[in-house]
C-alpha cells in the first residue's frame, strides 16, 4: 500500500495495456478502470506525496483550502491568493469560474462531519458531487425526435415553437425586426416541430413552473446548445435596450448635469436609489449585485452576469464520490473518480483525498486509516508517455528532479 509502488504499477499497466484513443485533448492511452488502496495512517512518512519527481504540493494544498473556504468561490484569484496557480485555464477572460460542485460540497461535508460525530458506525457518510444536469443537457444535445406522435398543433409546446418560427421567418410578424431582421434564425433541423420538441423535452427544467424558453446567447439563433429553460425573472435579461437609454446598460442612467451614472430600482412601488457611479459599467455591476443579493426579479444589466446566471453547464468535477467509514475509531475513505489524468492530475488528487481525510478525522477526533481509489477512464496523454517511461526508472531519491508534464484543461 505504498504510493510509489502502487503508482508505478498503474503507470506500467496503462503503458502495457492501454488502448490508443482520440479525445478532446488530443491522443491518449486509456484503460476503463483501476483501483488501489493506500495506507495513510503514518503521517510522518508523508504517505500522500509522490516522491518520484519534483511536485509542488503547496499549490494542491492551496486548492484544498480554497475549496473548503466558506467564502463564495467565483474567481480564479481566490485560488491564487492561497498559492494555487493552475486554475486559469478553466476561467473566462475575467478570471470568473462556475464550479457547481463547490456549492454542493459544503453542505454535504458539514452534514457528514455531524453524522460521524453522532453515529460513527453509520454506512451513510457519503458525499456526491455529480450534477445530473450535466448528463441531462448532454443527452438533450444528442436528442432525436420526440416520442410524441400526435398532431403538432395539439401539443402544449406548439405555440412556443410556432412563435419562434414566426419571429424569425415572417417579415410581417411584429417582432421580426428584433429576430429575423437581426439575422436570428431557427436552425434547419428545428423547423421540424418533433425534432425541436425532442430537444427541449430533455433540457433541465423542462416546462417547470417559473421557467420559460430562452436563448443563452442573444446574438445566436434557436439551435442546439443555445436554447435553455431559464427562470422567468431572467427572461428580459437578453432583451435589447430601449431607444431612450443613455448609458448602454439596462437600469443605468446618465445624469447630464454631473456626468455621473445613477442606478434606481422600482421596489414595492417606490423608486429606490441604489447609488451614483463614475462610470456606466460600475453602475451596471452594482445594479446586478444588488438584484442578485436581494433576490429581486428585475432584468440584469450585464451580458456577463447573464451568461453566468443562465449557463446550462458549469465545470464538473473529476473526483465526485467520497464515502467515509469508521471502524474502531479509525477513519477510512473510498474516493471515486470518473476521469483520471495519471501523470498530472492523479498525484494531486491523492493528496487532496488525504487532506479531506485529515480534516474529517480532526473534526471527529478519529485516527486516519486507508483510502481506496476507484478510478474510471484512466489515461496517459501521448505527449506524457516519454516522461512516464522515465518516471518508471526512478526511485524515491529522485524526489527533487522535475519532469515536465503539461496540464490539460
Could you characterize the architecture of this molecule?
This protein has 409 residues and is α+β, with helices and mostly antiparallel strands. It has three domains: 3-129 and 314-398, 2-Layer Sandwich (Thymidylate Synthase, Chain A), CATH 3.30.572.10; 135-237, no CATH class; 242-310, AP2/ERF domain (GCC-box Binding Domain, 2-Layer Sandwich). Helices cover 33% and strands 21% of the residues. The protein contains eleven helices and twelve strands. It has helices spanning 3-17, 57-68, 76-81, 100-118, 132-141, 158-169, 193-202, 280-293, 303-310, 345-364, 385-392; strands at residues 19-23, 26-39, 126-128, 211-215, 227-231, 252-255, 260-267, 270-277, 319-327, 330-337, 340-341, 367-381. Strands 1, 2, 3, 9, 10, 11 and 12 form a seven-stranded mixed beta sheet that branches. A hairpin with a 4-residue loop joins strand 6 (252-255) and strand 7. Helix 1 crosses helix 11 and helix 2 (57-68) packs across helix 10 (345-364). It is globular, with a radius of gyration of 26 Å. The two termini are 30 Å apart. Residues 307-313 have low confidence and may be disordered.
Amino acid at each position: 500500500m505504498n504510493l510509489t509502488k502502487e503508482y508505478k504499477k498503474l503507470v506500467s499497466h496503462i503503458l502495457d495495456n492501454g488502448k490508443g484513443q482520440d479525445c478532446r485533448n488530443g491522443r491518449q492511452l486509456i484503460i476503463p478502470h483501476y483501483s488501489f488502496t493506500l495506507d495513510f495512517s503514518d503521517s510522518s512518512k508523508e504517505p500522500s506525496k509522490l516522491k518520484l519527481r519534483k511536485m509542488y504540493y503547496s499549490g494542491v494544498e492551496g486548492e484544498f483550502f480554497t475549496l473548503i473556504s466558506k467564502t463564495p468561490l467565483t474567481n480564479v484569484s481566490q485560488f491564487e491568493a492561497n498559492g494555487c496557480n493552475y486554475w486559469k485555464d478553466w476561467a473566462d477572460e475575467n478570471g470568473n469560474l462556475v464550479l457547481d460542485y463547490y456549492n454542493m460540497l459544503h453542505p454535504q461535508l458539514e452534514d457528514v462531519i455531524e453524522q460521524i460525530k453522532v453515529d460513527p458506525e453509520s454506512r451513510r457518510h457519503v458525499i456526491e458531487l455529480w450534477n445530473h444536469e450535466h448528463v441531462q443537457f448532454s443527452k438533450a444535445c444528442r436528442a432525436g425526435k420526440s416520442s410524441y406522435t400526435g398532431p403538432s398543433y395539439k401539443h402544449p409546446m406548439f405555440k412556443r415553437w410556432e412563435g419562434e418560427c414566426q419571429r424569425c421567418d415572417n417579415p410581417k410578424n411584429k417582432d421580426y425586426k428584433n429576430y429575423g431582421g437581426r439575422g436570428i434564425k431557427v436552425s434547419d433541423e428545428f423547423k421540424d416541430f418533433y425534432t425541436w420538441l425532442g430537444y427541449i423535452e430533455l433540457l433541465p427544467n423542462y416546462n417547470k413552473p417559473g421557467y420559460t424558453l430562452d436563448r443563452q446567447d442573444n446574438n445566436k439563433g434557436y439551435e442546439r446548445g443555445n436554447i435553455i429553460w431559464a427562470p422567468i425573472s431572467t427572461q428580459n435579461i437578453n432583451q435589447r435596450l430601449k431607444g431612450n437609454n443613455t448609458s448602454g446598460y439596462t437600469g443605468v442612467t446618465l445624469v447630464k448635469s454631473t456626468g455621473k451614472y445613477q442606478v434606481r430600482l422600482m421596489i414595492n412601488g417606490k423608486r429606490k436609489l441604489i447609488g451614483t457611479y463614475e462610470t456606466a459599467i460600475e453602475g451596471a455591476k452594482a445594479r446586478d449585485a444588488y438584484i442578485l443579493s436581494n433576490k429581486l426579479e428585475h432584468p440584469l444589466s450585464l451580458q456577463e452576469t447573464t451568461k453566468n446566471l443562465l449557463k446550462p453547464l458549469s465545470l464538473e468535477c473529476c473526483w465526485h464520490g467520497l464515502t467515509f467509514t469508521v471502524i474502531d475509531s479509525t477513519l477510512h475513505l473510498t474516493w471515486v473518480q470518473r476521469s483520471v489524468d495519471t501523470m498530472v492530475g492523479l498525484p494531486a488528487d491523492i493528496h487532496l483525498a488525504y487532506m479531506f481525510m485529515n480534516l474529517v478525522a480532526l473534526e471527529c477526533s478519529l485516527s486516519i486509516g486507508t483510502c481506496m481509489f476507484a478510478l474510471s477512464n484512466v489515461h496517459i496523454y501521448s505527449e506524457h508517455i516519454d516522461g512516464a517511461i522515465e518516471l518508471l526508472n526512478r526511485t524515491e531519491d529522485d524526489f527533487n528532479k522535475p519532469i515536465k508534464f503539461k496540464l490539460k484543461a
